[in-house]
């Protein structure tokens, strides 16, 4: 098992390098935080996360950065049961888990309404390119995940966010 504290320390060190960080980090669930479709599982199962997820979550919390969920799972009851079982449910400022035929535009409108965070101050991770394309058009820095969230893809996200930030003149971000 991965050492959560070690991953957290590495993530915190990584975040220390950037001049600007997102105010809110949004995660998909299936094949982003955990390696399965929760609709194919039973509520009685014991779920597990990708190895680096908890460490990264704790680092975000340590830096005072909010986290949220945007999932199109058709079984929100199983998803929320799993989040509870994994003891990470209370870490999210908002959880938008509902099915949609489209990409996650509606999810992000709701997240924006409930948090007040501008789209350009958000960073988003998802394994579905359709969602990445749609949500990035809203101004959210969006990162395609191929093997779940890990330190590598997390660094890629922070880098892309800060480059985009530097390119824009409007500085409304969470400056350090
Ligand atoms: Mg997914």
Automatic annotation (TrEMBL):
Q: Which GO terms describe its molecular function?
A: acid phosphatase activity
InterPro entries in alphabetical order:
HAD-like_sf, HAD_sf, HAD_SF_ppase_IIIC, MDP-1_euk, MDP_1_eu_arc
What protein am I looking at? Magnesium-dependent phosphatase-1
The UniProt entry, under PANTHER family, shows: MAGNESIUM-DEPENDENT PHOSPHATASE 1 MDP1 (PTHR17901), MAGNESIUM-DEPENDENT PHOSPHATASE-LIKE PROTEIN (PTHR17901:SF21)
